[in-house]
Amino acid sequence: MFGQFVDRYATDAYGPPVGVLEAIDRAGHVGDLVALDINYPFDSGVSVDQVRTALGRNKLRCSAITPASYSRKFQKGALTNPDPQTRREAIDLYKQAITVAQELGAKYVKFWPGQDGYDYPFQADYEALWRYSVEGVREVAASAPKMQFGIECKFKEPRTHMFFSNVANTLLAIQAMGVDNVGIVFDSGHSFLAKETPAEAVQLAARHGRLTSVEVNDNWRDWDDDMAVGSVHLIETLEFLLALRKIGWDQVILLDQFPFREDPVAAARESIRTMRQLDALLDRLDLEALEAAQDRQDALAAQRLVLDLFLGRP
Amino acid sequence: MFGQFVDRYATDAYGPPVGVLEAIDRAGHVGDLVALDINYPFDSGVSVDQVRTALGRNKLRCSAITPASYSRKFQKGALTNPDPQTRREAIDLYKQAITVAQELGAKYVKFWPGQDGYDYPFQADYEALWRYSVEGVREVAASAPKMQFGIECKFKEPRTHMFFSNVANTLLAIQAMGVDNVGIVFDSGHSFLAKETPAEAVQLAARHGRLTSVEVNDNWRDWDDDMAVGSVHLIETLEFLLALRKIGWDQVILLDQFPFREDPVAAARESIRTMRQLDALLDRLDLEALEAAQDRQDALAAQRLVLDLFLGRP
Amino acid sequence: MFGQFVDRYATDAYGPPVGVLEAIDRAGHVGDLVALDINYPFDSGVSVDQVRTALGRNKLRCSAITPASYSRKFQKGALTNPDPQTRREAIDLYKQAITVAQELGAKYVKFWPGQDGYDYPFQADYEALWRYSVEGVREVAASAPKMQFGIECKFKEPRTHMFFSNVANTLLAIQAMGVDNVGIVFDSGHSFLAKETPAEAVQLAARHGRLTSVEVNDNWRDWDDDMAVGSVHLIETLEFLLALRKIGWDQVILLDQFPFREDPVAAARESIRTMRQLDALLDRLDLEALEAAQDRQDALAAQRLVLDLFLGRP
Amino acid sequence: MFGQFVDRYATDAYGPPVGVLEAIDRAGHVGDLVALDINYPFDSGVSVDQVRTALGRNKLRCSAITPASYSRKFQKGALTNPDPQTRREAIDLYKQAITVAQELGAKYVKFWPGQDGYDYPFQADYEALWRYSVEGVREVAASAPKMQFGIECKFKEPRTHMFFSNVANTLLAIQAMGVDNVGIVFDSGHSFLAKETPAEAVQLAARHGRLTSVEVNDNWRDWDDDMAVGSVHLIETLEFLLALRKIGWDQVILLDQFPFREDPVAAARESIRTMRQLDALLDRLDLEALEAAQDRQDALAAQRLVLDLFLGRP
After folding, report:
1. For A119-157, b where at least 16 C-beta lie within 10 A, e where not — what string?
2. CA separation for the pair B183, B204 (Å, rounded)
3. Which ranges of chain A would DSSP assign to H, the alpha helix?
4. In whole angstroms, how far apart are CA A129 and each of A115, C94, C199, D152?
5. Which B residues, 177 through 196, put their C-beta within 8 Å of a C-beta on chain D?
6. How far is D69 from chain B (nearest CA, A)?
7. Is-cis flag, bond preceding D158, omega within 30?
């Protein structure tokens, strides 16, 4: 979110190129960030040491390494590519990323399988997609039992249909892998896009002991717009943050934004401010009264408690 | 919204039967309502005088009369029914409603053309739908030039596709009618459902001088759930109320809710409370700063002003 | 689908009342049906023997019994109702239905938990919904280990959010039940509504050994319109039927339609005709070529094989 | 659709760079194309003469010139940019394109206002968007009364909300312009995305005398996936082609595809083949029977005529 943004129309990009070291410096300027998710491979010529140094001077740590399993080479899939040789290259890329993650002290390696899926009816053999996905992740995860892995599921984009489409689908596939060190990278925007209720879906992941990481942003619910937190779904974002409290989430919450037309540092600061404000609201929420309302499924009473937080008393 | 609710599953209804006079009394119990939209024909045996008396004892006036052009007889359309005789009956029903509206001092007669449209590909002749719709409304409106009429457009339900599907489509058809006394009944929930931005769409109607009435509620954006105001789209509802100020709307705002599982009187009160609170927030919104932000399309600055209203007070 | 249809607008219904015995006779008139899913309780005064006789004279068997766990009494949920007494009544209703199902030789008892879920943000305790759902179904299923049960999952309606929302969510809950005799009633329309690819989702259910029953219809993908088979999603319906062949489905396929404005017998016949035609197309589909195309994820080649079936060769 | 494709993930693009002259040659290889819509400015150093020559050697003509009013410079809008200087630059770009269009004998200059709109609630002054849009297009169109212009409306992307969002909205704005030489570039995929029925919407544009051009493709209805024609919505595409016959459309139909993972020449050929096949089906459609079915809104009869075309031949 601190790099250069491009899309299929503005092919000259929404701003000038930004290297990984510069992007880390930008993140440092936000002032409130503590950890980053970093893409791998780095720009040509950039070493792990340079990345470590850049993190250090910005008082940031590396939370995750995300292998670029979605570039041109993997356009028909990484772990599910129809070509065995490309599947092998994807696995190799993930394994290299493990080493880098260890060197940078990252908590987990992220699978972002955006190209793994299909676009057209009849294009894919769904059994093969399942098998390749389960076996591919399993092989990578089994190769480093002490490293944690997280699958960032999403309904679509860049494929019109991604295999790891939502939390429940992904949990089923993780179960089939039979490994302990794979969980879900829960992105609240992806949850909106999948028509899940984020609070419910994150509790589902936690209930199964498979919540690896949490990312936040907002969108209009039929595309992954990666907007500032709370900008569209304010009430559901509050409910989501309450769910994080309920499951005892005490780790970092990552921002995942694409501020195409905004300043990325400012966009990060705004989202952080919003989250702090929402957190302060939660401190004032009468949980006992809320639970009592929920115990009778009293929608109006539950909503009133929440709306009065937002709207105040005259 | 104060009557009996039924759907295709709970065919024994969500509560006992409620006659029109009892429904008016319920509305009176809300305590803050001033005007009602009343379906016509009334229950068998109920006279206009009885309705007038019921309104009077509850200090309510009749804002609109809505002919039941969506009952069994009109299941394939009222003004667009393929059968000329049924189209004639629909026109007659609307004309009778004009008399009742006049007797009750209603501001307008509402077209709620829920059965006018189509369900399947290839089912309808779109030219015929256009022609019947334009000619039918024109005939009714021309028969009472001093009465105002409003078309409540909606994307779908009960048909999978309604002819008067959104504000822009309906404005085009109204233009083709060539009459002065037909406008739009703008329902904020229908606007969400049509994927419009309500603030933008209501300004579009007003810009064309065709805003007859305003109704509010909320939903999940792919069905007309008729939920309490602000329960899902809090930010956009605030933006919508600001748009009403901008266009100088000084008439009543009607609630249109279907609280299947809630108490209708309580649901009305909650929505009214929410709207009052939103109105109070608007009083505190720094409009100058907002306009300045909009003048440079500065999304983060505009959002900050609004989010601090909801979240602020540090 | 052979009864009386009503919705929240046409409260006088789309046609006259139809009793269960008459509905069975209508089904018999279709001429090609072999099995029915019958709601329970029957109309007041109708006995199991009368239903059996009606089935017999129409050469139909009872495929499933569906308890009416979605009527007024259960408007806030059946197995997940916040009131323990109502939950108990729901369980009792299901258990009574088991006896009836046994008496009629039904293959399974269907859970159609349309009221089990929530409507508003913050209304529900998602942990409680999960627990009540898992425990409730488990208790019913454990009480009759030789009877099969099927959960018909759906994203929404009548609730804006159903707990058993899609195939993957439901499979996770079934796993948690720890019983062998509960599976999924897969409705292709519900799959479209949940934004699943039906062919992929039915294979997911089958892969987990949990496919109890298959129902078909079509819709516009954001509501459960229960339209005639293939009327909107012709290509995906063909792909779905191919998936049924792949998993070796050799049991009945049930129609689940709500032809509000059409003749139900004619609607059934049309859907059956369409399915027979699609089946004949599948007989002519070059499966070897399709698999070769899928093995390289060649969308254009796979589509060409299918489109040429529909569109013929010049 | 014959150039290089990139998106926000595969920033190394889905294939190597393709210049405009090479793209024209690719189009020539399709073998069945007769006219192209060409972006302007051309690649650096490419002259109008070179483009004309490339068209000539491929037996293609230039149907339209599309100014790149969606590049980095115009990321906050072209004609609606908040900065007056940038709005001026957009107008200048459009005017330059007129000259090029005249030199190449293009039928029309296309407005593709993808950056004109907004992303966030409260970001935009909707009055200003309307005014800038109406005045900007009017100024360009009035500067060349003998040139035709077409606005390609779309619901969203790259903005989350485009101003010219659908056919009806755009017709209203065109009316407000008060010029004769502006119409709509109707893209069937954009129509699906806007939840319009393409057959109905194209007739709406034609009824108002504002149909400038027709483009075709397909998508999954909540994003502009630009897939091959008929790949998802086969029945509605047939209905759309029938609507084109009804309105007497006798001009070219343009393909607008983004075959990210497919060969663009093959993708074009497949779509052309599909359209030819659909056209042949239409020749065999019993129009008299269809009209009779539509005259009674008999969905099953109308569908049967169509489904038997696709499925029949017993």
Report:
1. bbbbbbbbeebbebbbbbbbbbbeebeebbbbbbbbbbb
2. 12
3. 20-30, 48-57, 84-104, 126-142, 167-177, 188-193, 198-207, 234-246, 264-284, 287-295, 299-311
4. 12, 38, 13, 37
5. 194-195
6. 17
7. yes
Of the candidates C117, C159, C250, the one whose C-alpha atom is nearest the C-alpha of residue B10 is: C159
* Tokens found for residue B196: 């419009």
Average pLDDT over residues B49-61: 98
User: D305 in helix, strand or coil?
Assistant: helix
Residues of C in contact with B78 (CB under 8 A): none
One-character DSSP codes across chain C: --S----SS-TT-SS----HHHHHHHHHHHSS--EEEEEES-STT--HHHHHHHHHHTT-EEEEEEE-TTSGGGTT-STT-SSHHHHHHHHHHHHHHHHHHHHHT-SEEEE--TTSEESSTTS--HHHHHHHHHHHHHHHHHT-TTSEEEE---S-SSSSEESS-SHHHHHHHHHHHT-SSEEEEEEHHHHHHTT--HHHHHHHHHHTT-EEEEEE-B--SSS---B-TTSS-HHHHHHHHHHHHHTT--S-EEE----TTS-HHHHHHHHHHHHHHHHHHHHHS-HHHHHHHHHTT-HHHHHHHHHHHHH---
Which residues have C-beta within 8 Å of that of residue B222, sequence separation ≥ 6? Answer: B193, C222, C223
In one-letter notation, the amino acid at residue D233 is: H
Place of tokens 């896009």: A193
Burial (CB count <10 Å: 0-12, 13-18, 19+), residue A288? exposed
Using CB atoms, pick whichever of D124, D194, D203 lies closest to residue B294: D124
Task: Tell me the torsion sign for CA atoms B5, B10, B14, B20.
Answer: positive
Pick among C122, C151, C223 to test the A interface (most A CBs inside 10 A): C122
Largest CA distance in chain C: 67
C83-100 pLDDT, tens per residue? 999 999 999 999 999 999
State the amino acid at position C246 in one-letter form: K
- The span from the CA of C193 to the CA of C222, in Å, is 5
What is the DSSP code (8-state) at residue D112? -
- Residue-wise pLDDT for D108-144, tens only, equals 999 999 999 999 999 999 999 999 999 999 999 999 9
Rounded to whole angstroms, the Cα distance separating D6 from A116 reads: 17
Q: What Cα–Cα distance (Å) separates residue A264 from each residue in A4, A267, C296, D302?
A: 10, 5, 39, 54
Taking the C-alpha atoms of residue A145 and residue A176, their distance in angstroms, rounded to an integer, is 17
Interface test with C, best of A207, A295, A297 (most C CBs within 10 A): A297
Who contacts D72 (Cβ-Cβ below 8 Å, separation ≥6)? A10, A12, A13, A14, A15
pTM, two decimals, is 0.98
CA C172 to chain centre: 19
Nearest to A199 by CA among A186, A184, A181: A186
**CA angle in degrees (0–180, nearest 5) for A133-A136-A137:** 85
Say if CB C13 and CB C6 are below 8 A apart: yes
Whether D270 and C304 lie within 8 Å, measured CB to CB: yes
Retrieve residue D34's tokens: 């007769």
Burial C221-235 (b: 16+ CB within 10 A, else e): bbbbbbbbbbbbbbb
Answer whether B277 sits within 8 Å of A311, measured CB to CB. Answer: yes
Do residue D75 and residue A260 have CB atoms under 8 angstroms apart? Answer: yes
Residue C124's closest CA among B223, B266, B72, A295?
A295
Token look-up 């254009």 returns C300
DSSP states along A98-112: HHHHHHHT-SEEEE-
Question: What's the pLDDT tens digit per position in C104-140?
Answer: 999 999 999 999 999 999 999 999 999 999 999 999 9
Please write the tens of the pLDDT for every residue from A151-162: 999 999 999 999
